[in-house]
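Tutorial handout. Part one gives the primary structure; part two gives the three-dimensional structure as tokens.
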Amino acid sequence: MRRADRLFQIIQILRRSRRPVTADAIAEELETSKRTVYRDIADLIGQQAPIRGEAGVGYILEDGFDMPPLMLTPEEVEAAVLGAQMVAARGDPALKRAAEDLMAKIAAVIPENLRPLVLEPATRAAPSWKTLPDNLDMAEVRRAIRGGRKITLTYRDEQERETRRTVWPFAIGYYETSRLLVCWCELRAGFRSFRTDRVSSADFHEERYPERPSMLRARWRRLREEEWSKMKAG
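Part two.
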């Protein structure tokens, strides 16, 4: 690998991680030595790249570092196209349009030699065999999540029992045949997931809930990790 490519890849490795990345991990991914990584990190810092950390602990790329847009490898183009295909096949109408627009934008700005990877892709996501019902306006749900706003759902469980739940939405899970809205439920005073096809109606409020969506996601992930650790232990 050329040195310039290696420096670029180090930035990419650091940019994709929220936690410190060790020189060992960088060296393993780039198939080079730790000594080379240390030298490259020092060179990047000398070129004003905002890298913080130290040998033996790990490195992070601080916020605010910008790189030329869309300097994509063929694999990155294929990954983006495949992901957009999956969204177009399984997402709601607004996301489907956004995925199609994304592929068109990528095709318009990448170099000519990479354009066939978008226009004639070798990878293909299978279409969803079940059309998901649109009982819930998912575009409005995503806006509520971005704004940290409450939603009141009329929800039917597996026994067809109907309840009204005021929830703090913070994540959406897209599965092959269903979507899950992940929330903090005021009625149950805990995290709950709701299948969107079981929502009869929804009222979207301007009222913001007291926690940031990112904090709720972090709490929810920690809880799931703890539950998973308990299951593995026993």
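Part three, for discussion. The first strand starts at residue 51 and ends at 54. The mean pLDDT is 87.
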